[in-house]
Amino acid sequence: MTLRNSLPVMTLALWAGAAPLASAATAGNAAVEAASATAYSSADFAQCLSQLRGQAIKQGVSASTYDTYTKDLEPDLSVLPLLDAQPEFKTPIWDYMASLVDDERVADGKLALQQWQAELSRAQSQFGVDPATVVAVWGVESNFGRILGGRPLLTSLSTLSCVGRRQSYFRGEFFSTLKIIQQEHLGVERLNGSWAGAFGQTQFMPSTYLRLAVDFDGDGRRDLVDSVPDALGSTANFLKRAGWKPDMPWGFEVSLPDGMDTSGAGRRNKQPISTWAAKGVKRADGSALPAGDMQVALLLPAGPSGPAFLVTRNFDAIYSYNAAESYALAISHLADRLRGAGPFVHAWPTDDPGLSRAQRRELQTLLIARGFDIGQPDGMIGARTREALKSIQRDAGLTPDGRAGMKSLQWLQQNAPAEQPTTSGAASQ
Hints:
Elements: H1 24-39, H2 42-58, H3 63-70, H4 87-90, H5 93-100, H6 103-115, H7 117-127, H8 131-142, E1 151-152, H9 153-162, H10 167-184, E2 192-193, H11 206-212, H12 228-241, E3 251-255, E4 271-272, H13 273-278, E5 282-283, E6 295-299, E7 308-311, H14 313-319, H15 325-338, H16 357-369, H17 383-396, H18 406-414
Antiparallel strand pairs: 1-2, 3-5, 3-7, 4-6, 6-7
Helix pairs in contact: 2-3, 5-15, 6-8, 7-12, 8-12, 8-15, 9-10, 10-11, 14-15, 16-18
């Protein structure tokens, strides 16, 4: 979920291991949140919950539900710094794409397409969204149900309702979670998810669940946690309601003529495709653009020197799932890969490309072999991995920023110790 525009979901497959780069504004906000957390007490929290009771009842939460499920809540102030740590906006696009769209996820996605073929075909018939796009969302949001998030929704959302920024927004999600428990009879112990409240196999926010979740397996409940059909059907319904048009592509990679004026680039600046063709824009393989007047916009996620794309309103529908162009591009590209397409034709404008999850695990294995205590190699680049990387980057003459890039991996490969000690420990931090 992207809090910038109060949108519905949150990508978990990467974010447990992301290493966002803090800006001055982010650091300032984090300092404010830390000060708020220091001064906040359980008594303050209890008083806040008491004050919210009347608002919850006005919004349809019964008094008995509110009292039952809030009486034992305690604040979790660790969620506050996360308000300013969204990797969609802080991670280099080549790192973001390398981790979210790799050979491993493509292979898993193709298996998912086969396993859930009947349900996906039914969803396509009912909602008009193709199976590859639905499965791409599933894969990016929770790694096909493997990473659902472990924070209790009521704890996170009640905390964010009482302290920190965006309290009004989070109160709506807090009350929606209570209504889910009340109306859908889902056990509170199953309502775990991201720090911001997104939950289930395709990571809906509670208010989005109430509006758009569907009972796709016919058991009388809308269960996005334990029912894959409900999650897939609900995702297709979301995209349909967001404006998805069947038989329209999300877009495609293109090549720009030398010296082209790109000042008109931007997802919102859609023009007839013939306009772009007249400027000399071609498909990435050099072929002509499709004929017609389909409205498309020029997207330059890494500037004019990086890959370029023409995107349609279906790209906007994916964007509405999580308001970040990098996110929408990851979903779109993964869907193409699931249909058999290859990687992008044009390279990202960097001499230090990002790593796939398999390469990240290799990097961690090599760090462990050098004696760093970072836990087991899980591909998630947490604090201990980043600190270890800074050390070897100093040795390698690289910028010691803790970023897991190709240069660091190659240096570790070329300087691997002869013997690799065995290391035990928890998952990487």
